[in-house]
Amino acid sequence: MRHIMSPLDFSVEELDRMMDLAGDIEKHPDKYAHACDGKKIATLFYEPSTRTRLSFETAMLNLGGSVIGFASADSSSAAKGESVSDTIRVISCFADICAMRHPKEGAPLVASSVSSIPVINAGDGGHQHPTQTLTDLLTIRSLKGRLDHLTIGLCGDLKFGRTVHSLISALVRYTKVKFVLISPEELRLPSYIREDVLDANHVEYEEVIRLEEALPELDILYMTRVQKERFFNEDDYVRMKDFYILDKAKMELARPDMHVLHPLPRVNEISVEVDSDPRAAYFRQVQYGVYIRMALILTLLEVKVC
Amino acid sequence: MRHIMSPLDFSVEELDRMMDLAGDIEKHPDKYAHACDGKKIATLFYEPSTRTRLSFETAMLNLGGSVIGFASADSSSAAKGESVSDTIRVISCFADICAMRHPKEGAPLVASSVSSIPVINAGDGGHQHPTQTLTDLLTIRSLKGRLDHLTIGLCGDLKFGRTVHSLISALVRYTKVKFVLISPEELRLPSYIREDVLDANHVEYEEVIRLEEALPELDILYMTRVQKERFFNEDDYVRMKDFYILDKAKMELARPDMHVLHPLPRVNEISVEVDSDPRAAYFRQVQYGVYIRMALILTLLEVKVC
Amino acid sequence: MRHIMSPLDFSVEELDRMMDLAGDIEKHPDKYAHACDGKKIATLFYEPSTRTRLSFETAMLNLGGSVIGFASADSSSAAKGESVSDTIRVISCFADICAMRHPKEGAPLVASSVSSIPVINAGDGGHQHPTQTLTDLLTIRSLKGRLDHLTIGLCGDLKFGRTVHSLISALVRYTKVKFVLISPEELRLPSYIREDVLDANHVEYEEVIRLEEALPELDILYMTRVQKERFFNEDDYVRMKDFYILDKAKMELARPDMHVLHPLPRVNEISVEVDSDPRAAYFRQVQYGVYIRMALILTLLEVKVC
């Protein structure tokens, strides 16, 4: 039995097969409409996250299965002092697979070590959120037709952004991926990722301060939020915040075949005027998130559909 | 694609067809038990309302579909600052239709303007709650066999009562409906409804202070709550509150074929001793609420059942 | 139509049939996978209890039915002042059966008196929790092959422990059940249970202070939590707490065919090192809880499966 704690738990070949499956699901959804009849997913969200929770529930319902679970810790047994290990053993009697979000790093790993059903890490604190990364990979592959030979811009808070770190670690496994790291000095990608992930894998990258500089050469622009409170001082924030807001004017600098991704929720880092640009792919990304979660559930449950 | 924001979004003819459909659902529920197989409703309740939420969920489940959603804003992405527009675009990737309750007037309308799935306004602040009005119409039509040639008493807080305003606006489209407006002076129907809706449509109405005065002539009595804090002073409240409490004694003044409706929850404005009176129709009204929501879902999803 | 408020609502013969049914469900789950197609359970949890709620939801989903409900009172109409009687009349329009947990003793009984669907008491304050007792009975019967001729140790807080009181009342109906009551003096079984239940039924029992003393003769050890705040003083707690913690060393005193039960959640009264002991049955107990709830739902809905 397998679990997924990190996007790197699956080899490039395994991910390829999973993305092929997601692609087939996209094309032939009816073929999979009863693949998980009679099966249940438990969504154990110790920390609320509507989008992620509903994406998992949608994935299971699309496969013909059903859902049990909780949406926040106060309605769970955690309030009564039960350990995550005990909870997952109980849930193993109820469901066939489980998606767990927990504010504590490593909680899903602890759960998986005693679980008799597959556990999906649906986000553990600032640590990992593998299905977001799988979603990002599938979106890029679906839009560009490949995961290699790409120039990928990562914009915003590269210091604390969990999704960015995971995406980099996942993409360095493909050939000729170049990164353009777009952030204020204060929010640069941490040196341990630059050194241990990028340099160690001989991956090409450059760092720029302004989004405009980077835009013309990008195949993919991955936007994230820049929170005001992350800046050292108010002056710097005021001076620089516009550098990281994507609007129509900046989109004119980009290639006609560039695509914009965002893990959502977005606040104001992408102007709503960009939404109607055909290159805006952040809502399609949500749809790919459903397909890849369907493929992941089928893979972990070892359900074959012919 | 259509949405429903107000009960007036549908013409009298369209409502007739929808109520015919609800009647057929009541008679032949099995015929519709798989009409929405594989479809999903998202119940997006930014403000809790158990009855309304469960009524929508029951409606979809009765049609063979399934449910995703949230029951209060704190477990939603709204807490992270996401706009209603972005949320509905995300939900459009998950569900086939959505019912939204929101404390802010107009929020469901904003959602419908960018949604790629039908949006049902399940209550937006004190503004509209169209499926309550559809429920009221279906209940009256089912009990009386018609929506015209009726004398309808509306009792309680006619000033702030959203359901009463909507019901009046919906009923003036039928012939020979007469209203008896039963309320304290402080909670009279607002002049803009008396003038713009009743007078403008040449609808007959009278205003009375005491429920007893009105009861003998009514075909339908629509009760609502009179909240103490709506009165100008404590003395008035004490003096008048019994005027608006329906009990067994008052029911003796009413016709044997009058029916009592109430949007629920009731607090004490209808004495529990009235519950066993065959004219008490407020719990049957809940059942009609399920049928009309089933009919509405089928209509908006353009599902035909033969 | 029947409800279940107390485990004693069913005769020994009826319970036998229900446990036979649960046993058949365990052996042939597929036979029951569509027994409740098109039916709905409403889980009305005015007080959160994840395990119990999910157990009921799992039971109904395993039977092919579906679920509506709420997980805590704040998202229910109770907040708007609706009575439990009105709520259940509304829910009767939505669901086919209901499981209600309520902090107030007697609330499910009030509901059942006006309900037109079967009501299951899923815990009312410190009063009754019949499906926990049915779970305990089924677990013992499944593990030992019988409910008579057993020596059953009950350990921990016997004064306030609702599950222990219910289990005793249920087990005295079987022949030759002997109880060993293991608790500190402060938390002894109340005299009204010793006298009115045990003595009145001529049931053999002994009371001991230390778990070690009792262990060698037990067929079943039913563990419960001893809360620190229940002791008269800190010294007593420190002196005695280890008496009531089950660990590997204590397990060596027990018979090879003794089984350990616990209603869960456990905190530290059973050391995790005991989990791998084949005699530890508290997680299997959760599984039996699903089977007995499936059998109960089928029984109350009068669904026959051949």
From TrEMBL, chains A, B, C:
Superkingdom assignment: Bacteria
Residues the entry annotates as binding carbamoyl phosphate: R51, T52, R101, H129, Q132, L264, P265
Swiss-Prot/TrEMBL GO biological process terms: 'de novo' pyrimidine nucleobase biosynthetic process; 'de novo' UMP biosynthetic process; amino acid metabolic process
Binding site for L-aspartate: K80, R162, R225
Domain Aspartate/ornithine carbamoyltransferase carbamoyl-P binding, first and last residues per copy: 2-141
One MF annotation (Gene Ontology) recorded for this entry: amino acid binding
Reaction catalysed by this enzyme: carbamoyl phosphate + L-aspartate = N-carbamoyl-L-aspartate + phosphate + H(+)
Pfam families in alphabetical order: OTCace, OTCace_N
Keywords from the named record: Pyrimidine biosynthesis, Transferase
Family: Belongs to the aspartate/ornithine carbamoyltransferase superfamily. ATCase family.
Alphabetized PANTHER family for the sequence: ASPARTATE CARBAMOYLTRANSFERASE (PTHR45753:SF6), ORNITHINE CARBAMOYLTRANSFERASE, MITOCHONDRIAL (PTHR45753)
Record NCBIfam families: asp_carb_tr, PRK00856.1
Assembly notes: Heterododecamer (2C3:3R2) of six catalytic PyrB chains organized as two trimers (C3), and six regulatory PyrI chains organized as three dimers (R2).
UniProt function note: Catalyzes the condensation of carbamoyl phosphate and aspartate to form carbamoyl aspartate and inorganic phosphate, the committed step in the de novo pyrimidine nucleotide biosynthesis pathway.
Name of this chain's protein: Aspartate carbamoyltransferase
UniProt organism field: Wansuia hejianensis
